[in-house]
Amino acid sequence: MGSFRKRSGGNWDFVVGGKGYPGGLEALVQEYGIEVA
Question: Which domain of life does the UniProt lineage start with (predicted)?
Answer without folding.
Answer: Bacteria
